[in-house]
Amino acid sequence: MSLARFSLNQATTKRWPMDETVAGCVASGVPGIGLWRDQVADHGLDRTASLVRSAGLTVTSLCRAGFFAAPDWKDDNRRAIEEAVVLGAPVLVLVSGGLADGSRDIDAARRWVGDAVGELVPFAHEAGVRLAIEPLHPMYASDRCVISTLRNALDLAAPYPSEDVGVTIDTYHLWWDDDIWSQIARAGEEDRIACFQVADWITPLPEGVLLGRGLPGTGCIELRRFREAVDATGYTGPIEVEVFHEDVWSRPGDEVLKETLALYTEHVL
Amino acid sequence: MSLARFSLNQATTKRWPMDETVAGCVASGVPGIGLWRDQVADHGLDRTASLVRSAGLTVTSLCRAGFFAAPDWKDDNRRAIEEAVVLGAPVLVLVSGGLADGSRDIDAARRWVGDAVGELVPFAHEAGVRLAIEPLHPMYASDRCVISTLRNALDLAAPYPSEDVGVTIDTYHLWWDDDIWSQIARAGEEDRIACFQVADWITPLPEGVLLGRGLPGTGCIELRRFREAVDATGYTGPIEVEVFHEDVWSRPGDEVLKETLALYTEHVL
């Protein structure tokens, strides 16, 4: 099986210590890793950077910044861009955050996301880090991400150079959208695909609705069709598997990685 | 306060017996009621019809038919149309159902919804009942309703006469959509608004995600903006309040109705 484009987003193996995760990727022939800021901070930024570099792993993305309704959003996002530089991550994933406290004006919240991204563009450009606006599933619109569709993410990215601002396409968040195939094609035409993440949708959703993602093939999403649609735009970049599920997290990381690679080959490639 | 367009969808007071619900509406000056088939069946179809008729209540809709992946979908939907006739309900709300067992082909499921609605059109036309395709929130796409956007519902309705096939606009299901305002305008231009339902979105979602709807004003949806946008299309029909929440259901029906009317006046009118 070809793992040339595979990247393990470390959210999938959230409790696997950083050094074991990196060693496990190397042992399995995994070429790429998507890092999370909290896990990087736990291990140490410089230590993580040298660990992945000496292991020969490619960092495919850093998750995540954004949350533009927070008072310290600008400082935090600038720090995230600096962290991406240290880690050699070409892409910083942005989750916009929800409505401002007590506000019902979601249109205003979306406009603000566009403006805030614009304020970050000079820093990102200077740093050589591409910002990737990620639409999240509409069930998170009130509290985590007011950007719910790929169309909206592309509209907000449009004013800025595509080398500085792209989008994240995550199957879990977008599979339900009847407009998704034309928006993926549009994302390719506008050269905005900065990050491609794969997780499956399993039914029913668990309590809390944050941890319902399944490993590839365990749910109802046409994952191969997504991969083919993204590839049809000319995208040849990494394919990250990013799964959030308590049952996955509670298993040994190397076992999860092994299963993930098999399922990726069967259902995504 | 003007209740001229108000309709109590009886899902809001799910455990209020039918005769008490009808008496409570009359006592509060509520002119309309949205009925549910299971509650109608519990009370008896003919008995319910004569109860609401002698009370002078207008039946604004019957919920619900659809579920086109079920083996007996056609018989069940024809029965629902007949029930609507007996009850004097001008509108039958259709919830499409989810993916067929074991299928991942959501595009095929959507095409089938369009075809199935088409098969019902002659019966509905003959009966004088308008079918109202309801898009549900995308978190229900796999198991309850593959139609997640107003745009998709309008696309599927398009081949059929607007007097026979319309759509249901429910704030709870559609509020997150960045395309919603233009699609509401389109729904008006195409004369498809058959039913308008109001509920609020409260955060966080409860376990099971079915019962998270709030009374008007208790959540983050711009309800008045929705009502104004629907009215701006020329729609002058009923405004149903339809809330699903255990905390609402566990309270006495007359108390819930009283609060609902106050919140409707404050947040919707």
Please provide a brief summary of the model.
Chains A, B: Keywords: Isomerase. The first copy, chain A, has helices at 18-28, 37-43, 45-55, 73-87, 106-127, 150-157, 171-174, 180-189, 223-232, 246-249, 253-267; strands at residues 6-9, 32-36, 58-66, 91-95, 130-133, 165-170, 193-198, 200-201, 213-214, 239-241. Chain A has 269 residues and is of the alpha/beta class.
Topology, pairings included?
Two copies of one chain form a homodimer.
Chain A: E1 6-9, H1 18-28, E2 32-36, H2 37-43, H3 45-55, E3 58-66, H4 73-87, E4 91-95, H5 106-127, E5 130-133, H6 150-157, E6 165-170, H7 171-174, H8 180-189, E7 193-198, E8 200-201, E9 213-214, H9 223-232, E10 239-241, H10 246-249, H11 253-267
Parallel strand pairs in A: 1-2, 1-10, 2-3, 3-4, 4-5, 5-6, 6-7, 7-10
Antiparallel strand pairs in A: 8-9
Helix pairs in contact in A: 1-3, 1-11, 4-5, 8-9
Largest interface: A-B, 36 and 36 residues
Quaternary status: homodimer
CATH superfamily caption of chain A: Divalent-metal-dependent TIM barrel enzymes
Domain count of chain A: 1
Classify the fold: give the CATH topology of chain A. TIM Barrel
Question: Sheet bearing the most strands of chain A, described?
Answer: 8 strands, parallel, barrel
CATH top level of chain A is Alpha Beta
